[in-house]
Structures are given as C-alpha cells and as structure tokens.
C-alpha cells in the first residue's frame, strides 16, 4: 500500500488484511523506503497518495514489474500518455487509474449512458450533506455530460414551462437539467430519472460512508494481473455485456 | 350535483352512485332548473362549476337549507365573507369550500407544517408531466410557504455552497429551496425532504390520475351535515390530532 | 396492423398515425382479408392477435416478404423453431417476437443482470394495484431468476435474521427475496435493490398506464428491416454496449 | 449526565457541550458519587444507564428536585406507576421517559397514525443492515399496530391475490402487511405506504448513524422544566397540532 497512513490507505490496509484471498505485504508512506515493495515481493500496489508523488511511484512500480491500482487524482491526458509509455515498455504489467471506485457510482453512470437514447425526458437530482461547496456535484455533472453525448441528434426534453421562478428548473448541463439538494442527515446520493409515454425508469445511488471505495479497489486488485497495459476507469474491469 | 356534465361532475355523479351509503338525487348543469335540487329533497350539493355562477348557486342552496361541498375556484376573501354571512343566517347549514380535495396532498401539507420545526434542513422537489406551464407547481409553492411560516425564528437551512451553476440549488420560496422536475411519463408528484443529524424524513405524494379528488369529496359529503357554518379547506374535516 | 380492433391494436394504429416518419397502411382484424397487407405494400406488420391465429399470420407475412413485430403471447420453443425456419427460407425478412415492449422494464432487467455480480446483497420489491391475482408478479420472478443466474458461484445474501414473523423476509425466488406490495392507487412498479459496504444501488421502474408498450413497438418497427432473421425479446434491438 | 462513559452518554456529553444555550455540569458513571449532580446545581439530568440502576437514579434526582430525560429501557407499567408517584410528590419536577428519541421516527409514527383512516390500503416496508436479528423491526411492528388501531372498524386492505409464493405478501401484523428487507450498505430505514383511488402517500424515515437520538434528547432537555409530572414518549413535547 502506497500512502498507507492516510485515511484511505489505512482503510485499505485493513480491508486487504480481512480478505481471505489476499495477503497484505507492506505499507509505504512519506519517508519510508519504496524498495520495501520489491523486497516483500508485492504483486499489486495500491496507490492513494498525492499528485506530486504519484508519477514517481508509478515509474518505480512499473519498472519493477509490479501491477498498480491507483486512486490518486490529478491525471491529465499528458500524464496518462506517459504512464501508457511506461507500461508498454513492460509487457505483462497492468495499471488501473480510476477517479471513482464506488461500484454503484460507476454502474449508475454506465446504466444512465445505456438508457439515455430510449426515453423522451431525462433529469438528474443529486443530494448531498450541506457542507459540500460545489453544486452540482462532479459526479452529477459528469453523468449529465455522458447522457447528453449519448442523446446527440435526439430532440431535447419536452418542456412546456412558460412561467418559472429563477432556478426552479435546475441547472443546465449540456441540455440536461440537474438539481442539487443540500440537506443535513444526507451523505452522497444521486437519482437519474428517465421518462417516456406511461413509464419512468430511475437509477438511484446512495453512498452513506466514506468506505464505499473498498469493494471497487479490492475488485481491481484481484483482476489487474489479468489486465496488462493501462486501463482508465473501473468500468472496463466490470466486463459489462 | 351542480356542474353535472363537466368532467369532474360526471366523475362525481358516478362515484356517488357507486357509494352504498349515499343516494344520487339529481344533476344540474347550465340551462337546467336549479329548483330540481329542492324538489328532489337533496341534502348535500356538490358544486364544481365556474367562478361566474358559483355565488348564485351558493346563495340558492344555502337559502334552501341544503349543505354544500364546493370545489369551484376563485374564492377571494370578499367572496368567503359573503358566504359566511349567508350561512350565519341559516343556522345548521354547512358549507365546505376547498381548493384541493386530494387527501394525500392535504395530509402532505399538514405533515410538512408539523415537521417543519424539528429539522435543520428542508427542501421540496415537485415532479410533473412536461405539459405543465408553471414551475414550481402551486401546491409546491404553497407547501414551501407553510413550512417557512412554521420555521419563523429558526436559523436558515445550513448550506456551504460556494460554487454553483445557475439554478442548481433550485428556486427560493420564502427561504425554502424548491426544485421542479418535468418528465414524460409522470403525472403529479411531490417530495418534502427534512434532515437533521443522522436522519432524514421524506413525505412523498403521488397522484397518477385526475380522479384523486373523489375520496376527498365523498368524505366531505358524508361529514358536512355535522359541520354547520363555513369551513375552508379539507383539513378541518380530517380531525387530525 | 394485425388485430387492429383490439385495445392494443387501436392504440398502435393511433401511435403509428401520429409518428411523422411512419405511414399507416391498413388494419386487419378477424373477418378481414389479410391480403390487404400485401395490396397496400405494407413493409412492417405489427401483430397483437391471439395464439390461435398468430402462426398463420406469420406464415403469410413472411412468405410475402413483410417484416413483423409480434407482441402476441404463447410462443413455445417449438413455435419459435418453426418461425425461424420460415424466416431462414426468406432471407432479408426480419421478425421480432417479444413478451414485453415496455423499454423501462426491459432495461431494468438488463441492468439488474449486469449489476448482480458486484454487490453482496440484492432484493426485489414489486408494487401493484390490489386487483392483481398473482404474487410476485411475473416480471419480478423473471428478474429474480436472471439475477440468481448471474450470481451463480457467489455467496448468498448475508442475513443474520434469527427471529422472524412468517412472510416478513419475503418470497424466495432462487435465493433472491422478493416482496409484493398491493396498494390502491398504484399501477405497476418494481425496485431492485443492490447493496454492498457503504453504498446501495436501486433500479426502479414505474409504469402508470397501459400504453407503455407504444415506444418499444415503434422502436422495433423502425429497426426490424435492418434486422433480418428471427429476434426474440426487445433487448437485442437496444444495442446496449 | 448519568451513564456518562457509555457510548450514548459520551455522545450526549459532547452534544450538550457544543450547544450554546446549555451548560454541561457533570458526568456520573458507575462508581461515581451521584451527589455530584446536586453539588453542581444540575437542573436537568440525562439518564442513559441500565434497567438495574435507573430506578434508584430516578428516586434520587426527583427527590432532589432535578428534572430528568431518560432513555434507559425496561420501563414496565409498574415502574412507570412508581415514577409517577414520586413526581406527584414533588410538584414542579418534570420527568420524560422515551423509548425512541429519533425525531424522524417519532414523527413517522405520528403521521402514519393520522393518515391511517383516510386510505383504502396501507403497507409497511422496513429496510435494515443484514446484521439485524429480528424481522420485522420493533419500530415497524409498533407502527403497524398503531395504524391497525386507528383503522378499527374500517374494511381491510383490498387484495385480490389468489396465487402467491410463501412470504411474497409479507408478515401480517394486526392485518397490516409488513415487509423486511436486509441489505448490506443500509442502516435503518422505513416506508409507510398509503393508497387510495388515484393517489398514494409515502412517509419515509432514514436513519444513517447511531447519533440520530441527539436532537431529540436536546429538545427534551430544553423543554422538560416546563413539563412538570411524568411524560412518556417524545411525542407530547413536539406540540403537534
């Protein structure tokens, strides 16, 4: 585990320790010698560190033939290009870089994209705790953009509204209305609502604690050895047909 | 039944006919002689007519000692004052005038008002078919105002939003955020969300056809004889403790 | 339209008439001459008739090179085998036979099957009007069986229940708990709930009138010419990736 | 605070400390001298201790003219009778004993009881984490019994079910169907569904952490001095009209 003393790192160390089919080898944090990963014959590294150090970490683990599952943020196209070069030079090594490991969130977006073309109307409601600074949430904005892209060429949502209070119809993200609720007692929730004649379809994701990334990271750790090369996003590992 | 050939009137004629404890006497519509109500010894009149004729109708039925359940719109304070004078002059006659007979909608507002003081946060989401012209709906705006009044003196909803797209946080109705969804496949729906530390309470009302006024009108017909004087709104008849 | 005077048939005749990119040619019902389909150069036939006549109908339209979209029930494996022989003998002709044209229901099942492997727990709640005779609904039972099949080899839902009232934990359909709610004011609704550490995913389908088959039939009519051979179920036409 | 070192006690000590209008005086736990409550001029005691010691605690605080808010369990009718005698002998002292301080749960039951008479159908769905031992939950069973009592004399839920899998229609609690979902990723949730012609009303309560009792206890602490005598349950303090 790289970043083993951080909040996410500590949670993952415990989760790997509790998984019967996985063995925890060693944790490395700022100040520790990264060579410990090699000395302990670690097969898969989990990296939840910092944009400042993650590229050096990745260069080291790829060069040493260790697979990597990376949740650290800040990957630009340029950074992804460099990582792809490194893994191409080390056939057999698998690296997964993903912005979101919550399986429910990843599936929600996948389903929303699939359903987008088959309904006249679609709107997104995201609901979060009131300490959140941005509205809509990054996930909601991304979901709306994925939907909008899938609907290219389709007529817009029907909407006969002629008299509206400011804000009533939500924010417009690429033509998709997005509504942001901020409520004490909530954590992170999202609903995508699709509707057509006589029927509606709702995809709802509720995340109620900060450990919902755990099953997704474990799934990636178990599969990355069979996925040589660079994979971006958890979705390809889910083998959705 | 006054207005017996209108859509609502015809539905109510059928509903009264189907109720075992009620007897349908006669229907009166434009052009018919209103004296038929008296000749048939009608005990309770249901009036779903038009603001232009409803005052004459009411004067007639009250003067003849007939109770009335009225769903016709357009009652100003001045009109209510006049009706009150008429019933005061006819002790024992009961008149109910209500803007909304859907019991679920009436209870939703009642519960929302009761819950308002006990939660840090409250928001309203209303969801309707895309042919609707106004946003938010009249019911949602009225619900928000009732909540705002019940919360007088309380701190506003906590909300740390610093970066928001226009409209993301909904419309502001007396300090309560109201979000309006317009979606094919929906009819008329509303959620009031309350939240405080560790818990949320949601009151949801779904109305999926235009006959949801029937049970409320029947309830009023059955009770109005025991409610002399003028009653405004269905809520007092529900005897909520 | 074959079966043009039935409830579904009449609805589809109107829907085709209202679609700008489609032209209604002719309706045929019991007693009418089926040759009218050929005389009017009909390209696609919609068949909502009866198991007793549908095979003769299909033989006729396939032999005449007309595509068919079929919602009639009663297709056994043996019947499907015969239809397949007929279309194989007429290259270029496309026939779609589907038990359910509500796109939301078809997508719900597809998503439920895709999500099934990624969550520890899954349960199904279906909610219908109280006139329904069977519990659970056919769709819910089919959804549960699809999920159970996708979860083969996985551990069962965790469940520490030791004291339960009869029926509290629902019906067991291949190991998946299914709960049936019967409530006045509802039509046909279903929720599939998935859960794992810290997060849940819910797929909800609401069908509130009997015309929710229309968009699915229209979609099939538009695509069937590009789908030679026999297709069973609407799902393949949705091109879900 | 009596029981100040327990989980609930520690949470309440922190909550009182954080409340601007309240002053924390002292904590007392097993082995501590209960006289500290009097020496510190404590006005209101919070008791989350144990059935074995709570009666002695209450005798002491009432005799010393201190108000009490009690969440300890195990109060039989006989115990309540004795506490009532003690407070009657000390005019001005207020004691609240409540089994549930989650305001959302208390309001849910109140609203369910109020709505019960106005709908043809009602069912309860409760959803909990899979470590729960009993089904249905105590709160769901209590909610169903309150609803059943309010519906005395009304016809039962309409239900045309003739073919059902065992358990599909839920558990029967005094004639009200109750469905229990057990799902990883959930904490404690409950929905009461009411339905009549064309409309449904849903009251949903979500409790996602173990601190949802805090606002209810604080509300009781602030009001108990104005409520002399014994009060059972949080509901009377909410002044619901």
| Distance, first to last CA of chain A | 32 Å
**CATH topology label of the largest domain in chain A:** Rossmann fold
Largest sheet of chain A: 5 strands, mixed
Order of helical and strand elements of chain A? HHEHEHEHEEHEEEEEHE
**Greatest interface (CB-CB under 8 A), with counts per chain:** A-B, 49 and 49 residues
Which strand order do you get reading across the main beta sheet of chain A?
Answer: 7-8-4-9-10
How many independent structural domains of chain A?
Answer: 2
CATH architecture of the largest domain in chain A: 3-Layer(aba) Sandwich
Q: Uncertain spans of chain A, ≥5 residues at pLDDT below 50?
A: none
Q: Treating each run of at least 4 consecutive H or I residues as one helix, how many helices of chain A?
A: 7
Q: What does the average pLDDT of chain A come to?
A: 95
- Roughly what fraction of the amino acids of chain A lie in strands? 15-25%
| Strand tally of chain A | 11
CATH superfamily caption of the largest domain in chain A: NAD(P)-binding Rossmann-like Domain
Given the helix and strand composition of chain A, which structural class is it?
alpha/beta
Rounded Rg of chain A? 20 Å
Protein name (chains A, B, C, D): 4-hydroxy-tetrahydrodipicolinate reductase
Pfam families (chains A, B, C, D): DapB_C, DapB_N
InterPro entries (chains A, B, C, D): DapB_C (IPR022663), DapB_N (IPR000846), DapB_N_CS (IPR022664), DHDPR_bac (IPR023940), NAD(P)-bd_dom_sf (IPR036291)
Binding site for (S)-2,3,4,5-tetrahydrodipicolinate (chains A, B, C, D): 129, 138-139
